[in-house]
Structures are given as structure tokens and as C-alpha cells.
Amino acid sequence: MKKDILKKSLIVLIMLISVVVLSGCGNNNGENNTNNENNSTTTDDLSSLPVYNMETVENYTEYKDEASGAIVNYPSGWETLDQDGQKLFRDSTLTGASLNINSADIPEAMSFDAFIGASIEGIKQQMTIDGDVAQEWINLNGRKAAKIDYAAKQTDSTNVTIEQIVFIENNKAYILTIAVLSDNYDLVKTDIENIVKSFRI
Q: Is 165 in contact with 149 (CB distance < 8 Å)?
């Protein structure tokens, strides 16, 4: 019974997390960066960024989000849940390992840097974070993306490790959210890396 409650609360948490990032562009106190050069995939030099290229992995399933067109590959053994019209994928054998995709239009005048900065501030304000929110730029299949990592407190004794990947194309933010109980992270680390590498449109 306790395990079922934890599973349900983790589903709610991952859905909340993705919404927090999506709402970040509305929480930057009017500090829209009118320099829009970072709001694209071609203006930045990717040569110095860590490279994440998609690899063919056996026993993975491709999912294309019909609303956004974003695509991700996930382990075939994961189950699909529908939460208020949004797809959520989770490992049925490992409590807390799950992912989902969201997208949202962002103001044309807002730069990629400003969107990520506002999103991180939203995360810090709306969630109880254990430690800091780490962010780095990566080269994801030839496009600039932000990788955001942090641990959110689920209970006093339980943390959830969150990894979010965000890229922007044509003033739309595409967000992949992956969550796993922090104690179980090492068990799915390879799967998480493969999932991240497969995120694309």
C-alpha cells in the first residue's frame, strides 16, 4: 500500500516538475532578453559543448508526441500512463523511474538563456530542492540544448533525482523530464543517458 502511494505521488511530482519549467518563461519579472540570437539552433558554436548523439539501442521503443512532434526512445519494458491527456512512461519494476515530454510556445523576444534562467528560478521557488540546481549547455544531436539536474525532496527521507533536457526551435520550447528515486539512480543511469540522447524533433 505504501509503495502504491509513493508511485502515485511520484507521478504527480513529475507532472508538476514539467509544468514548473514550462511556466518559467512567465516568471522572469519582465527581464525578456530582446537579443533573440540564442533562440535558435544554428547561431551557437557547438564545438565546445559535450556531445550527446543518438545511438541505436536494442529493446527501446520510439514515442512521438503528437502535439509537439518531439520524439524520444525509452526502454520497451516501461509502461505507458495517460495523465490528463499527457503521456507518462515509467519503469514498472523500479519505483520512481519515469519520463514525459512537454512543449510550450515562448515569447519571440525571449532568448534561450533567459528562458532557462527563468525556469531554474521557478524550480527553486516552487519546489524543495536538496542542494543546488545544476545546468550545462550540451550539443544534442547537433542542436544546442540545456541540461538541468537537481534533487527534489519527496519526503523528509526521500529525494527524487530530476534531469531535464530543453531545446528551442521556432519559439517553442521542447522539454524532456526524467525522474528517478535518488537511491535508484545508478540502476537506470545508462537508460537515462540513452533516453536523453534520443530526444529530438
A: no
